[in-house]
Amino acid sequence: MNRKLFATAILLMAFPFLSMAQNKRNGIKASPKRLFTIEDLIPGGSTYYQNSVPPSKYTAWWGDECLHLELDKVSIIDKKAYDGKTLFTLSDINDALGNQGTLSHLYSVSFPSERTEVLFSNYYNLFLVDWKEKKVVWSLPLDTAASATDFNEESRNLAFVKDNNLYVTNAEGKTSAVSTDGTLTLTYGESVHRDEFGISKGTFWSPDGSLLAFYRMDQSMVSAYPQVNISIPEATVRTGAESPSRAAQLDPDPYPMAGETSHKVSVGIYNVKTGKTIYLETGDPTDRYFTNIAWSPDAKTLYLIEVNRDQNHGHLDAYDAATGKLLGTLFEEHNSKYDEPLHPIEFLPWDSSRFIYQTRKDGYNHIYLYSLKGTQAKLECQLTKGAFEVISVTGFDKKNKTILYTSNEANPIGCAIYSVNMKGQRKLLSDKEGWHSPRLNANGTYLMDTWSAPEVARRYEVIATNGSLRHQYDDIQEPWGQFAVPEMKVGTIKAADGVTDLYYRLVLPTDFDPTKKYPAIVYVYGGPHAHNIDASRHWGVRGWDIWMAQNGYVMFCLDNRGSEHRGLDFEQATFRQLGVEEMKDQLKGVEFLKSLPYVDGDRLGVHGWSFGGFMTTSLMTTYPDVFKVGVAGGPVIDWKYYEVMYGERYMDTPQTNPEGYAKTSCLNKADQLKGRLLIIYGGNDPTCVPQHTLSFIRACIDAGTHPDLFTYPGDGHNMMGTDRVHLHEHISRYFDDFLK
Amino acid sequence: MNRKLFATAILLMAFPFLSMAQNKRNGIKASPKRLFTIEDLIPGGSTYYQNSVPPSKYTAWWGDECLHLELDKVSIIDKKAYDGKTLFTLSDINDALGNQGTLSHLYSVSFPSERTEVLFSNYYNLFLVDWKEKKVVWSLPLDTAASATDFNEESRNLAFVKDNNLYVTNAEGKTSAVSTDGTLTLTYGESVHRDEFGISKGTFWSPDGSLLAFYRMDQSMVSAYPQVNISIPEATVRTGAESPSRAAQLDPDPYPMAGETSHKVSVGIYNVKTGKTIYLETGDPTDRYFTNIAWSPDAKTLYLIEVNRDQNHGHLDAYDAATGKLLGTLFEEHNSKYDEPLHPIEFLPWDSSRFIYQTRKDGYNHIYLYSLKGTQAKLECQLTKGAFEVISVTGFDKKNKTILYTSNEANPIGCAIYSVNMKGQRKLLSDKEGWHSPRLNANGTYLMDTWSAPEVARRYEVIATNGSLRHQYDDIQEPWGQFAVPEMKVGTIKAADGVTDLYYRLVLPTDFDPTKKYPAIVYVYGGPHAHNIDASRHWGVRGWDIWMAQNGYVMFCLDNRGSEHRGLDFEQATFRQLGVEEMKDQLKGVEFLKSLPYVDGDRLGVHGWSFGGFMTTSLMTTYPDVFKVGVAGGPVIDWKYYEVMYGERYMDTPQTNPEGYAKTSCLNKADQLKGRLLIIYGGNDPTCVPQHTLSFIRACIDAGTHPDLFTYPGDGHNMMGTDRVHLHEHISRYFDDFLK
Questions:
Q1: Is A662 on the interface with B (CB under 8 A)?
Q2: Quick check: A706 and B683 CB within 8 A?
Q3: Which of B169, B244, B570, B661 has its CA 20 to 30 A from that of B93?
Q4: What would the pLDDT profile of B256-267 be if each residue is shown by its tens digit?
């Protein structure tokens, strides 16, 4: 269950593992005016992949060669011409496997070295096959009940979690238990701190794979939220001595709420050879966050950034990997609002005494170069600088000693690929337009750039990191080509502070008639670490916007202050009063909308999910005369019901910021509701627990106001698959009922 | 928490404890055309008692005198003239109490003897005061945390339950624990078997008060339904070692579902003098119902009717009250569908060797006279007979050796008062019209008859049980007199079987215009042990019907086969397939509705709660083209989620009647939903647990259909107080949105 709140709310992965089968075009020649069905536009729809997702190309790096992975063959992509030559086929692999197993496709194989060896798993085993010799070089059995598997290519050791305990299978196939006392509230090798602080996993191999750092999390002191499972399989229902029942069952989920007792995390290091585990000697882990774990290249030192519960102070600490003793603190960071380290340090591949670190200490996320002397770190220089943000560090070009990264330097809502050398000289490597996702080869010599732009569905380019080559390998056809796509506009308006530019996206109704008056719907997210408008395909528009535009609505979206990639001040404007400034910005958007001659200002709607559900509920109750209809999904209603890590970063605790919590609580505004407001929540939402929505419903009942309600029993924070289509039918129907 | 399902769903007590304060008329002279507000019509509304409930008179018997109890005085009701003379005042009582306590009103005092003694409690103590001598004759301290208190006037012993254990305070004020190991799943002295089989309490004093029979119920083997409490008081929220939390909390409720392991009940007898408890030697209590407990007049024998889990066989057993040994079985009852004994045997006050018993063995509930020889019971005669039902036995006229009872002999939808002598000769004592609720004095000489009829708001009559006197003491003014009350009609149509008469009630829109076409709403309950149409005030119309009629709807209600007071065949037509025949009858009602020239057959709605919520959901999904809009409240969705006692009586078990369960499950019809269906449930409903509604919502999502949903967090099976007003606003709005 993914507990990472807000990213998942708006970013739904559009890459199917097997899109090929769904991409077979039907033979009908479509008219250019074909209309969408909702199944075409919503992830989970039966024709979504066929009609809304540009088909993916699967690629992998093998040394300096870029490979095209297909169902039944792997070929070399010629860096100058389109077609490449076949390297091997699926039959070659299956011939090599013989009676050891079968592989069904080649989409997810990888190439750990420059030898003619391909690595893959077929669920039961991990195989390394020499395709030239047609033989299995090495294999490892896999536990089919394993999760969180983490393979180290260097040592060929494999870590995995099973029933809350951590195990390691070494290259010889011997499995050892790293822990044995795991329970639902004591986990080993799993992600911790609710995936905040950039944490997304719980195991960290040393470069050589001899040592495995891992998280241990004790949640026994955390209050469990009583989630309830209503779907008890009939097969388990029978009378008998043990009294099984079809009655709903409790599914308790440890959930520390803001200001309450939180979990305790420690970091262990397992030595594969000795089978021994040591723990970092951190002392009492109460109210401490251990984040951004990184290994020294020699595997002797483990680095992590510790953050205090207040989240206004971080320090980079070095621990002895052999003893667990603290070696020293390399540097500290302080921010009067909050400090949020998200990126582990990374050592330069060509100099193990220097590392880079990303921080927003000058107001924007930038790359800094440090040199190390023992446990002293010295800032050498700030490598990137300016009113833009480094979005991600892609890797290193060892030969030319440059760092590859992406940033929005060229366009605040774009993401292009750059290199920077040790003197801080930046070079644009990709097209400066659009949104780029590079994948670097191990040598650091080439990038495979997958990108899109408002008019570019998806393009694949091979780029030499030294800038000497940029070859368009493939340009995927726009799947919406056959449809009547509504007109979209992107621009900026001023925020409520009068100075900041905010980006908006406007989608006009299909068959737009400027002399008509249309109802308009604001789609809002509004929270940190997310954005809605960018320079990717169709400006990042949501399928539901298209659906509603086709149904006669003007669709509007505005990334208010607080959203991502616009710098620290932009984000921190919301501190200790989430929603307040965000709403002011959204009202600026409404002002703009109302200024459009074709918008009927008396028929405005608003919809958002998660933080956007909080925004929607807040807007409907704080400014009850603005919107006639709202649909809030999986909302935060009162930050006191939200979890410690995310909640306290932005809101501090209910004890230290009672005014902020009171001011932003929708419970205190339930009596102000005037318009029609539908609230929808996942019945087992582990992120915005049902208590949010249910408390608001209770408050409205007590206040005599009348929201509407729907739930998706058994679903979590987001609805997936066919539930997602149902959800958007439900949302759309509500606007049709009351706004149209 | 009252778990008795269905009665509470439609019968909301209209007698406030203190209606006086709310009955002060405001000075405004209302126009005859005044319209209702929803607050006037719905229980819980701010003006409901003032504008919809005929003010109550509080009365009590003192020997042959009928007393009028007022706030500050008690007077004798002259049986011939209207006004009576004051017997004593509140000051008299408080003077007598002196510093022992204070009494605030005289509405609920009683008169245990013909002495000048009045019995009352003031929350802290029970007092017996001689108003003539102005002194406290006797008093007993009360435990303010006690529940289920049961006072025996003869011995002045008091039984009560506290923290799941049973206690007795004797007349001298000494309290003894009858049990000490009570827990949430092991209760003493509380009602058992989920209030089925006529059970409504857990303690039974012997006539002389020397022995206390009581129920013990072990639910440790029963699956607990995971109810969740979302409202955690802020006061309990603080950080600390014990980690209190504002997170929702589990509130597990043992709930045996049909076909699953049920609870185990035993019957104990506590001897107040010896302090010893014996248990009836019943053997293993698994799957056995111990019902209808009754004492022999000499307190030597305890009678009960044991029913098997199949509920098709009952037997009246006699147990030795001193030893707990089974003395013998007096008689047995068998019914191929189900046997449902609801009335304990009652011994004739003038002959302790004879008792009466009510049973439906000839197809209608009638009174039978038995004589007792040792442990042999011999049927002497059937005292009442005919195609009508005895509704209740009121008591005995010792002098004339008659039994007082009510029945619907004169009118199938009425309830009048009769006497029957030992030869089976019946005599009508009350007005034959209307619905009568008699209260007999201890001597059996007089009745206080509180009654209403369609045109009679509430009337009080004193009736001599020998038929020599019938005096109208008071005739309460119709509180709707000042309002524009819509026209109501009651009549019969034929059931789907073509022969049975079914009663309907039609409410025409206020300001009815026969040339117009109106939308119509069917209000339905439809389950056993309940009816909607009777000969009481305004034909038993619901306030919400009036509200909707005022808003322009034709309101229709039909008591289908399966409902109460119409005989066993009428009720059992539904056996093993609840809803099937009931729906066929309701469709006959729809046919009738559509035949009315002023009903728009394309705008039909349906609403019901509990069994009526099941009927509504079933109708919307079984006959999807009939109703455009439905609102189902607290519904049963699948009988497999309903409890053992009620559920298995009508449906047998999922194991023995899989076809019946499958056929009646709304889960299997979720894909058929076409109209608009709003489902509403109490968030903590302990009767129709939330799993019903949530499973249906899940089934609809999976089937791609779109019901609507609302919940009342924290509420049980019915909404009370202001929540009930909110509920009816919500229901009404839904019909206004989609049916009007």
A1: no
A2: no
A3: B169
A4: 999 999 999 999
User: Is B723 assigned a catalytic role?
Assistant: no
Joined tokens for residue B219: 């639910």
User: Cα separation of A260 and A240, whole Å?
Assistant: 42
Residue A469 token pair? 């080559």
Q: Which residue has the higher pLDDT, B8 or B78?
A: B78
Active site (annotated) includes residue B563: no
* Catalytic hit among B262, B610, B695, B732: B610
- What's the whole-number mean pLDDT along residues A460-470? 96
Whether residues B712 and A701 touch (CB distance < 8 A) is answered with yes
Mutation site for A-interface testing, chosen from B230, B264, B309 by largest number of A Cβ within 10 Å: B230
Q: What is the 3-state secondary structure (H, E, C) of A584-650?
A: HHHHHHHHHHHHCCCEEEEEEEEEEECHHHHHHHHHHHHCCCCCCEEEEECCCCCHHHCEHHHHHHH
- Interface contact B328, partner A, CB < 8 A: no
Structure tokens at A1: 């269950």
Distance CA B326, CA B329 (A): 8
> In chain A, whose CA is at the least distance from the CA of B220?
A243
User: CA–CA distance from B224 to each of A10, B181, B654 (Å)?
Assistant: 38, 20, 19
Under the banding of pLDDT at 50, 70 and 90, the label for residue A456 is very high
CB contact under 8 A, A722 and B714: no
Record the tokens describing residue A13, joined without a space: 């992965």
Measured CA distances, B361 to A86, B308, B338 (Å): 88, 17, 11
Are the beta carbons of B460 and B447 closer than 8 angstroms? no
In degrees and rounded to multiples of 5, residue A493 shows phi and psi of -130, 170
The candidate with the shortest Cα–Cα distance to A194, out of A268, A291, A260, is A291
Q: Tokens in use for B566?
A: 């119409």
> What digits encode the pLDDT tens for the residues B82-121?
667 899 999 999 999 999 999 999 999 999 999 999 999 9
Tokens of B185: 């799943």
| B223-242 residues touching A, CB cutoff 8 A | 223-226, 228, 230-231, 237, 239-240
Q: Could you identify the residue written with the tokens 């339950």?
A: B161
Q: What is the maximum span of chain B, computed from C-alpha positions, in angstroms?
A: 78
Q: Which residue of A has its CA nearest to B730?
A: A706
- The minimal CB distance from B247 to the residues A223, A654, A729 is found for A223
Q: A471 an active-site residue?
A: no
Report whether B442 contacts B60 (CB < 8 A).
no
| Chain A CB within 8 Å of residue B720 CB | no
Q: What is the pTM of this model?
A: 0.95
* Fold assignment, B5-54+480-738: Rossmann fold (3.40.50)
Distance from CA of A278 to the nearest CA of B (A): 28
CB distance B253 to B225 below 8 Å: yes
HEC string of A396-436? Answer: EECCCCEEEEEECCCCCCCEEEEEEECCCCEEECCCCCCEE
C-alpha atoms less than 13 angstroms from C-alpha of A8 in its C-beta half-sphere: 16
Residue type present at position A523: Y
Domain ranges of chain B: 5-54+480-738, 55-141, 163-231+250-342
- Structure confidence at residue A624 (pLDDT): 98
- B701, B719, B724: best mutation site toward chain A, by most A Cβ within 10 Å? B701
State both tokens at B351: 């002959």
- Name the CATH superfamily, with its identifier, for domain B163-231+250-342: Dipeptidylpeptidase IV, N-terminal domain (2.140.10.30)
